[in-house]
Automatic annotation (TrEMBL):
Annotated coiled-coil segments of the chain: none
Signal sequence extent: none
Domain HNH nuclease, first and last residues per copy: 340-392
Designated name of the protein: DUF222 domain-containing protein
Segments for region (Disordered): 231-250
Membership in a protein family: Belongs to the Rv1128c/1148c/1588c/1702c/1945/3466 family.
Comp. bias (Basic and acidic residues): 240-250
Amino acid sequence: MGVSGMDGSVAARVTALTAAVDDLLRSPMDSLTDAEVLDTMRAVETARRRLECFDQHVVAALDSRAIPERLVMRNAAAVLAGVLNLSPAEAGRRVRHARELGVRLSPSGQALAPLWEATAEHRTAGRITDEHASVILRTLHKLPACLPVEEAAEAERFLADWATKIDARQLTGVAHRLLDTLDPDGSLTDERDQARRRNVTVTALGDGMHRISGELDAECSALASAVLGSLSAPQPTDAGGRDERTPGQRRHDAFRSVLKLALRSGELPKSGGTPATVLITMTADQLESRTGVASTSFGQPLSIDCALRLADQAAIAWIVHNSNGKPLALGRTRRLATEHQTLALIARDGGCAFPGCQAPPEWTEKHHVIPWADGGQTDVDGMCLLCDYHHDRHERQQWTIDMRAGIPWFIPPEWIDPERKPLRNSRFSVAP
């Protein structure tokens, strides 16, 4: 929505802000003294930090209305990511900060103070950065659940005060020392804290490698230590030589062995309608030439050689498509998609086909574009993959699907786009 569609007072302020920025960008700097350059730098930085806090008002507006539901998006973070082209991680971070540092509303609509008032005050005044706030919130989330409310509030004020004096990297060190002081021997941490803090994150590094990080609760830690410790013991070579792998490399290989064993066991739950499988797609030319890059269902690139090696070691499903990215249609007689049809849909759609949705194939179900009861065929050209959320809501919100050359296009209702221009998920690259 443009500025013209906003409330008049908000629109006027945004217009004035835009004009002020335009004027500032045209301002010459060569006439300023050294002191004036530094003063300008400080003033602009404070204004930048304060403007970032407007996210609090945006998220509050999204939360208080049905905007995500009307846009067929999961939540406020999905709206920010989709409308502003933010990464899911950045959108989620903005929403979390807004909800913890912004003014809250009671069920009756009464304004309540932010959860962390000292941090919110410094952030709104432009005295600390978003990076400072991230360090403070992460630290507060690690406080023992049994810590008295007054002590938690005092810890927050302590960190917020330090944040106005040092950078975020230095604040991280202060935060670590604070946690050590509050719970030096870990005696205050109990299973409730472990349950709240448990997490594992897998982050793509851009070159095919991924970084795993997280915090394991006591039970998971005990299991991981026993299994990885056993599988990562040094192994002599066939000739009796020493194991040249580092301890970290041995643990990596042990973790890979655990994953392969899990896939081969046949006991993993189905996901996306098929047994848990490594799904790899490539073109017929790539398979024939043994060159190029294949892709998993999660978008991870694999060299053709690596993919072929995997085929001999784990549960692999191959989908070979033509140069246009379209697999062959399979079957037209069954109400439920066959496993081969499911794999063909995964090869084509790559996950939920709804525009902007990043749900992988494992979180989707097969959707008949024309309902089965109305004569829709159980055929790759008559189905698409949709996650539970979009499967349940796209028709309710008056979106329609148009299959063009075997590819699903989504047509929005008039209230979203009067011209009803067809849209497709950005994973696709073929023009309409």
